[in-house]
Amino acid sequence: MQRSRSRQATLALLAVPTVVAAVLVLWGIGHESLWRDEVASVTITDRSWSSMWHVIVHHESNMALFDLVLHPWEWLGGGDGFLRLPSALFAIATVPVTMLVARRIGGDVAAAVAGLVVALNGFVAIYGQQVRGYALMMLLAALAALTLLRALELGRRRDWALWALTIVALPYTHVLGVLIVVAQSASLALYPWRRLPVRPLAASLVGAGVLWLPIAIFLKIGDHNRTSWVPPLGRDLLRQSIEALAGNLAMFLLLVVAAAIVFGALVVTLRRDRARSEEAWRLALPLCWVAIPPILLGIICLAQQTWVDRYLIGIVPAFGVLAGVAVSVLRARAGVVAAVALATVLALGALRATAGESHPASMGEDLRGAAAFVSGQAQPGDQLIYAPAFARVGLQYYLNKDGGRAPRDLALDPRQTAVARGDLFARELPEAEIAVRLRAARRLWVLGYGFDAGWHPTPETTTAVAPAILARDFRLVQRRPFGGFIVKRYEHR
Predict the structure, then answer these.
(1) CA–CA distance from 450 to each of 389, 425, 441, 463, 481 (Å)?
(2) Contacts for 45-52 with beta carbons within 8 Å, 24 or more apart?
(3) What are the pLDDT digits (tens) for 431-479?
(4) What pLDDT does residue 403 have?
């Protein structure tokens, strides 16, 4: 009977923040158009198993686990909102898992605060509505912490096996998920070494390392250079990342205070015990989890620019754990004040996120609206080109839904479509042939982000010849932005 009541109390504790997260994540989930990264995921998984596997191995190994989840999901239905549901469920599930982590470290108060911090984080709502693997990465990061806590506390083989499976899955969801594994494992430096179960820990880490070899090989042998668009890490980019991940600057400052409180409690514990202890490790876990991945990513940026805020989404659950543990170690009155401050700042951040103010600029592109506009305005004989070529990935997905009413793609080599090539990007005709077709066109649509877009993952044959011919032989008669995506219509002079 007592165990049943304890379980009911736990479920009641988890319920409110989880419901809040569900409302924020599911609200308007199908309202916004898919953007180009989401379309990339859909076009990878909307193939046969063999074709999808070829793309994963040779071109798009990152987020392979999410692709394997999305592939059978697409069989069940369609629509933008439906395609986003797996990510929404992963984001919502992150909340109760994070609360269970915080509860094992700081008790019920810590769990309640942690749940609200994660549920009201705008980043969670944003990427819970993305057909990408970021929400799954966030959930796995929380699960890794929970299973590690259970494995060390209970010492059961199944708990060690679950931890091993979770850390194996992280890099397959996003290759930088390995930073989460390093961070959580590094916290064990403060665990009492004599009580540390070395064999199951070593077996789990070695087994994970072996199972990571395939993705390391895929990344080595394939064409996976997809970070040339990332800007250099600087003060402005770092500030934007801080505000995005935390929800807003005020929340970030509160989290810094929370980290200071937890660090202070850790120092007091180490001095009191005069040695490593399980309590010290539990305090160190969220500190390492939240601090080490950004530091390691910054070091990686010295060799290759890879700093993108969403690549660090795995530390978001750690924000909740830090805040919860910080409130739990304060005295009662101070804890209430801290909880009220957190709730106020979180509510403001959640309102901004649901209003769309904190969405990245690239997610403002309305590919669905652009495709509907082009299909509705196009006339027989119209032709189109993409500027740059990678714009084809996003818009063509929606144009294909219109049953072939879109203008003919003037530059596309029909033998070099993405599916025919077995990759994500199609290839265009030679420059000379494109030039001949351009000069013969009467009405021409130019779709994309501009000929001067900085990222060119495919040969830009159209970009090489189109600007000069357009300036000399055509006049611009219509221009309409759809967020960051621009639709232009030209007529021959």
Answers:
(1) 10, 18, 20, 9, 12
(2) 45/70, 45/71, 45/74, 46/74, 47/419, 51/419, 51/422
(3) 999 999 999 999 999 999 988 877 778 889 999 999 999 999 999 999 9
(4) 63
Residue 353 clears pLDDT 60, i.e. is over it:
no
Give the pair of three-digit tokens for residue 9.
């109390």
Q: For 228-241, how does the pLDDT look when each residue is reduced to its tens digit (9 = 90+)? A: 778 888 888 888 89
Give per-residue pLDDT as tens, 92-132. 999 999 999 999 999 988 998 899 899 989 889 999 999 99
Cis ω before 72 (30° cut-off from 0): no
pLDDT at 2: 46
Q: What is the Cα–Cα distance from 161 to 181, expressed in whole angstroms?
A: 15
Beta bridge partners of 474: 492
Q: Do the strands 474-482 and 485-492 form a parallel or antiparallel pair, or are they unpaired? A: antiparallel
The rounded distance, in Å, linking the Cα atoms of 184 and 171 is 14
The one-letter amino acid at 182: V
β-bridge partners, 479: 488
Inter-residue contact 164 to 204 (CB < 8 Å): yes
Beta bridge partners of 254: none
Highest-pLDDT range among 127-141, 300-314, 326-340: 127-141
> Given the structure tokens 């909307």, which residue do they identify?
46
